[in-house]
Amino acid sequence: MRNKGETFPWKIIYQNIRKIVTKNSKEKVKFIEEYTKQEKILIMNFTETWMDETTKKDLLIDGYNLYRGDRKGRKGGGTAIYIREEYETRKIYEMSVNRVEMVAVLIEKLNILNIAIYRPPNTISCNFSVILKGLRVILEDIVTPEHTIIITGDFNFPFVKWKRLRNGGCIWEEKLGVGAKIDERNQFEKLNEVMDNYGLIQIIEESTRKENTLDLVYTNEVSMITDVDVIKSNMSDHDRIELTTNIKIEKDIKKPNKSLNDENDLRNRNFNKDNTEWEKINEELKSIQWVEKFKDKSTETCSKCC
Question: Is the CATH code 3.60.10.10 the one for domain 11-252?
């Protein structure tokens, strides 16, 4: 539990959760809720949630709003986004195409566009292409210099290896001897094409499931991420990604010292008021013996005495 008054950086969490609730267990939701009391978490993105119309109240986490992108027509899969409830957020897109899902939300006040995507193994190109087309629509409509974009997901490209550069972004190369299918390569190339077109950079080099980096994070604000942790998890066979950020929110910014609120402080005076008595001020300034007042004093002492 955080101590009152302590300041912590905001975090963004992503994980393939591998079924967030079961018929007999809500332990994963309970764990997540408890974790939010220990850390300062702004956004939580999950894939392979297995949510459907029967899972409603069981998914609620105190202090957060939930935005779902459930799989349509069959069990499994799905995406979900939890956002701190004090920030006005709206779901702007939801899509499910033959086992591939995507959900996108916009955090209005913070100008953050946040997207979660689930592309399961053996996805064929025609289905993933529909998702990518939807992604282009979102980015084309929303992208401005002021918006921060975060895209997380389980993309299931085990034939790709990533290496982080000094600027925090990663470059990729194909693993040898993995035997990737041509269709898989084409899907990965199309994904990269979309990301490149909108200035989005992938930032995860660590393995997220066994020896493979299946879970990726793209953003147009690499400098926003101050630390990347990939943590083993008992909730899934995928590791949890934790992004520590330098996001500043209005309530986190310290108020000026009490002295700065003093009405006698020149920084708080309005010199453009119509009733300012400039003649009187000039007379008072002229009456001060400035030479005597500052004689044999240092610059620092002179500045303090006035």
Answer: yes
